[in-house]
Design goal:
single chain; mainly alpha; two-stranded parallel ribbon; 11 helices; about 70% helix; globular
Length: about 260
């Protein structure tokens, strides 16, 4: 015999604790490390602009062990996404529909994603250049993997992982939870945007500002359209261009850029 137990709705305190746990397991943890990394750079005895921030570093000099570490890192980085979706499902919020993750609108999702990527990417490059000239950013190395047969596919998968993790947790999940608390829209948008900027602080102050602005744009889009999927597309396109472009373009081009 099956006994059905009605689960009572989470209290405000329980929901707040849930948010803290999800963030500390994911991007909140990254934000803490990013702050420590920035402090370390600022106290290293040389200008921030003369230091580097490396994304997608190699994990081992042994190619197949490096590949294993890369894939494991991608997999475990997505576990908080599964947790966030489960928690929304537990509260009967139908996360796929609530967050706009269903694949039923591929055309509009791709079109909006490409438009957002262009709108964010071009000004973002100008901001990175300006921040570098002003000494507000470290030198960003988007990828530091050796040129092996699996390098490009892994970088593409890593870009997709970043997009899924950040947009589902920082936009979809966090904003849905904060709005359920009755927070004003401005505070919800600001919280999501500041969190997005904070876990990029290891790259410098310019990265914080640029990603916070991106967070505002993405948050407003989600409030207007109710869909995270175009944000995932846009974020993935931006990261793929950065990771693969840095790896595949000739070094002479990169130095000119």
């Amino acid at each position: 015999m099956t006994v059905e137990v009605d689960r009572r709705p989470a209290t405000r305190r329980e929901a707040g604790f849930e948010i803290v746990v999800v963030l500390l397991l994911s991007l909140g943890q990254s934000a803490v490390y990013a702050v420590v990394s920035l402090i370390a750079k600022l106290t290293a005895g040389k200008p921030l602009s003369q230091q580097t921030a490396t994304l997608n570093p190699s994990q081992s000099p042994r190619p197949y062990l490096d590949l294993t570490y890369q894939l494991l890192g991608i997999f475990f980085a997505l576990v908080p996404v599964m947790l966030a979706l489960y928690l929304l499902h537990r509260d009967r919020l139908a996360p796929v529909r609530t967050l706009g993750l269903d694949p039923g609108r591929p055309g509009p999702d791709l079109a909006w994603g490409a438009a957002l990527a262009a709108a964010i990417g071009i000004p973002g490059l100008l901001l990175v250049f300006a921040a570098a000239q002003l000494g507000l950013n470290a030198q960003i190395v988007p990828a530091a993997l050796r040129h092996l047969w699996w390098t490009i596919p892994v970088l593409i998968i890593a870009a997709m992982q970043n997009a899924i993790l950040e947009e589902v947790v920082v936009v979809g999940y966090l904003m849905t939870r904060l709005r359920s608390f009755g927070w004003r829209v401005g505070w919800v948008v600001a919280t999501s945007a500041v969190l997005r900027g904070s876990y990029h602080l290891y790259q410098g102050f310019g990265a914080f500002v640029g990603n916070a602005v991106m967070g505002v744009v993405f948050s407003l889009f989600f409030l207007r359209k109710g869909r995270v999927m175009p944000l995932i597309v846009a974020h993935a396109l931006l990261d793929i261009a950065a990771f693969v472009g840095y790896t595949a373009l000739p070094k002479a081009w990169l130095s000119w850029l």
